[in-house]
């Protein structure tokens, strides 16, 4: 996957959403993908947002990636951000079982409630595999849950950047392979998917999870 040098022209515009408990590393994953760097970031307040231009599958793409807060107090604020998302990334921490069990108890249900695209591609991501000695959720458990939910699955590390690019690339390739989402992405060039402007009081520019 290559970053496109010409940022004014793109074939498709896709909206991606990152969800999961606070502290699982959503913002660190996003930072690793968009700026090739790693930071331990403080929790996201409300919603953060980044844009990435890439060339994938021979197409020039503009990815609008929304990073939501994991805390329950922001749940009502972030529910509207599911609208129109072509891809949703569910993140858990392989060293914290509570973040894995929350996927079924909270996050999968939120997708059912709020996602407006029935063909939306879901990706399950087990983060922090660099802490292998602290792992409590096995890869097999992740694979099984992804199969139950009809999700793509990958394990990665925002810190070492293992599989971070692959995570986003696999998700986008699947979107490109889904005719209804592809059609929506081309229309997205003309429609404003940035209408969910991030209120300054509710968003942090450098934030985490």
From TrEMBL:
SUPFAM superfamilies: P-loop containing nucleoside triphosphate hydrolases. It is found in: Cell membrane. It comes from the Eukaryota. GO terms for cellular component: plasma membrane. Keywords: Cell membrane, GTP-binding, Lipoprotein, Membrane, Nucleotide-binding, Prenylation, Protein transport, Transport. GO terms for molecular function: GTP binding; GTPase activity. It is a lipid-anchor. One of its GO terms (biological process) is protein transport. Intracellular vesicle trafficking and protein transport. Belongs to the small GTPase superfamily. Rab family. This is Uncharacterized protein. It comes from Cannabis sativa (Hemp). The lineage of its organism: Eukaryota, Viridiplantae, Streptophyta, Embryophyta, Tracheophyta.
